[in-house]
Amino acid sequence: MTAESFFFHFKHVNAMKTRWHVITLFIGLGVCLGLGSCEAPDSQVLETVAVQKNQQADLLAQKSQSASYQYKIGAPFFGPPDFPPVVVAEASNGDIIEVAGEGTLSVHPKSVTGNGTFTHKDAGGNVVGSGSWTATQLLSFIEYGPSTDPGFPPSFRAGYAHIRLQLSAGGTSFGGILKVFCLLPGVKAPPSSPEGIYLNIQGGLNFNKVAGGGAFGGPTLFILE
Prior knowledge:
alpha+beta
């Protein structure tokens, strides 16, 4: 190795060492700043960390607490007598289904009860079939909150429930998926949410819009217990 090449190699190695020392210094500084000190944490620091962890655990526990609700479909169960007694949804072919009923649902863990009636009519208003339904599984529930209108009790809640049903008509049983939407004054809800229900009959029609094409298919309500 010539003197020039040795000198070049020596400068290169020293430069690498210098860069490494700088990097190490910044890493060490970052660790010290993150800990607040380069010394071992004292008991006060450990106690503060423990308190923060307990607060986080309490918050998670509150979020996962069980909540129970009544749900109402149709005015006879809760509303003024001049409200529609049933909630109506429409299929793409113009057929409608009229639904009424009530039950309870809970979250954390999920559970549901409930029953009611339904009537299927064709586009001309002729009755195609009628029967009863029973809630069998809560698929999901989202609460939107209470109304900002002081005329509504604080236990009245807007929300959306997704419920599996077992329907019976003329000695035949079949499955269905019921979606219950409730809106209240002043409550923010997804723009696509109506006031009413959708009902998808498994192997049959999907009544996936409120009757008449508006935003009101009939009265529904969730009540926090």
